[in-house]
Amino acid sequence: MIALSVDSTSSSYAAGQSLAALLVTGAVMALIWRVTRSWRQAGTAHPPTSQVATAAARAKRRRIVLGVLALVAAAGCFKAVSVHNPEPRVAEAGADDSVGESAVPKRTVAPPNRLRHHRLMTREETAGVDAALAQRGPRRQSDAKRWYYGSEATGVSALLSVHTVEDDPELAAEKRRDSFAQEFRNFFAGARARDTAFFDAGPLRGRLGCGHLDTPAGEAAVCAWSDAYTSGHVLLTDTRDLDEAAQITREFRAATDRRAE
Q1: Distances, alpha carbon 233 to alpha carbons 48, 74, 226, in Å
Q2: Helices and strands, counts by H and E, the chain
Q3: What is the pLDDT of residues 97-130, one digit of tens each?
Q4: Are strands 107-109 and 155-164 parallel, antiparallel or unpaired?
Q5: Is beta strand 207-215 parallel, antiparallel or unpaired with respect to 218-226?
Q6: pTM (predicted TM-score)
Q7: CA 107 to centroid of chain Cα atoms
Q8: Angle at Cα 188 formed by Cα 186 and Cα 191, nearest 5°?
Q9: Within 10 A of 257 (CB to CB), how many other CB atoms are there?
Q10: Separation between Cα atoms, residue 28 and residue 34, nearest integer Å
Q11: What is the chain's alpha carbon radius of gyration, rounded to the nearest angstrom?
């Protein structure tokens, strides 16, 4: 997935926000200390004028200013801590509980021959569509495994695309770097999807989101799922209902990504 923007959910972004809060706090404290300088001196222009009274007034005013600075510092530190709330990386949040963060579970990634009314089409049936998509497809298109579903009568009605960390080291690096929010933001922006919404991902870990997009054949539904090991999506030209599209995608995911017992 192409990185289209700064990941506002990342640790580095959160650290930058915290640093900015601390810098603003320091600037405010320096300004307060500077503008209260003459008042803290309590000189001849600021009665009382006796040395003892002046010293006492200076000490009192200094304590007042230091108290204000302490409150500003406490507020700034609280702000810096509160904004440092990065979202976990996909490699962490989407990992199976039974394996380590850097491990990949034993599994088989292969498409079903049929799912509902969708039949897996042969390469000969989809040669023209595959060539067209290869010319305008996403980055690292060769690393994606694509399968088409439909029939001779209806043509292609569903496209299943799967990227796996086993076959794509760059994808594995992205999942260690990006959050789910960034990954889905990049995917939907790249697909020019609209009306996007998130749904229950099903029994496997990860997230699932769907939206509408325009195709040469008209409006279609596209759903994407992601976990620590896979980024996949399903394009459906025969439904516009996102709830139905999400359910079909969950079924495709479960039938394609089969974890060993």
Answers
A1: 78, 47, 9
A2: 8, 10
A3: 766 556 788 888 889 988 888 888 776 666 555 5
A4: unpaired
A5: antiparallel
A6: 0.66
A7: 25
A8: 105
A9: 21
A10: 10
A11: 29
